[in-house]
Structure formats: structure tokens, C-alpha cells
Specification:
This protein has 4 helices and 2 strands, in the order H-E-H-E-H-H.
């Protein structure tokens, strides 16, 4: 996967699109495979419910890590916020994560 992400970034950079592109890397579920003799995700704990969520944007200038709980439903409002755009006909479910970029603790 690292190689494919590198190829994607190289392609965006060579086409001068990197300055206007938000990149989101995530997963559909956590992983605990082979831990505690488990062969699939059947238990709700941090290892199986926690997923990576990485957001890179030209509007995010500070690298930060947050342990504040968020949901994948927050991706759409976050992208709309980063694009300085708001939906005209409805209020989307979820919340923009943009405030967490300045305050990763969420307080």
C-alpha cells in the first residue's frame, strides 16, 4: 500500500494537482487478526473498532495526531468544510473534523 500511495502522490504532483487535493486514507475496520488466537474480528474492542483516519489537505498546515473519537460519517462534512463549501439543500450527518486540526484534543 505504501508504494501505491507514493505512486498516487507522484502522479498528483506531476500534474500540479497536489496543491488543490485533499487526501484521505482510512480502513473499513480495525485489525486484531492472529492476536489472542483470533482469526477474524468478532469482538468490539479498541483493536477491532479503531481504524486509521489520515487527512491531508493544502489547508491543513500543522501535522497533528488526535485520539478524540470520530466517525467515518464525519468525512463528508470535513471535505465540504475544507473546500469552503456548504451543502445548499440539506444538513449532512456528521461533523466537520476541521476544528480538530487546530485542537487535536477536542476540548
Amino acid at each position: 500500500m505504501d508504494d501505491l500511495i507514493g505512486q498516487l502522490l507522484d502522479s498528483l504532483e506531476s500534474q500540479y494537482l497536489l496543491e488543490n487535493t485533499c487526501i484521505i486514507l482510512t480502513s473499513d475496520h480495525g485489525s486484531q487478526l492472529s492476536e489472542k488466537s483470533l482469526i477474524r474480528n468478532t469482538r468490539l474492542n479498541d483493536a477491532s473498532t479503531g481504524i486509521p483516519l489520515i487527512i491531508a489537505s493544502p489547508k491543513v498546515t500543522k501535522v497533528s495526531t488526535s485520539t478524540f473519537p470520530v466517525s467515518l460519517i464525519d468525512i463528508y462534512p470535513t471535505l465540504m468544510d475544507l473546500a469552503d463549501n456548504s451543502p445548499q439543500d440539506h444538513q449532512p450527518d456528521g461533523y466537520s473534523l476541521k476544528p480538530l486540526f487546530q485542537n487535536p484534543q477536542g476540548s
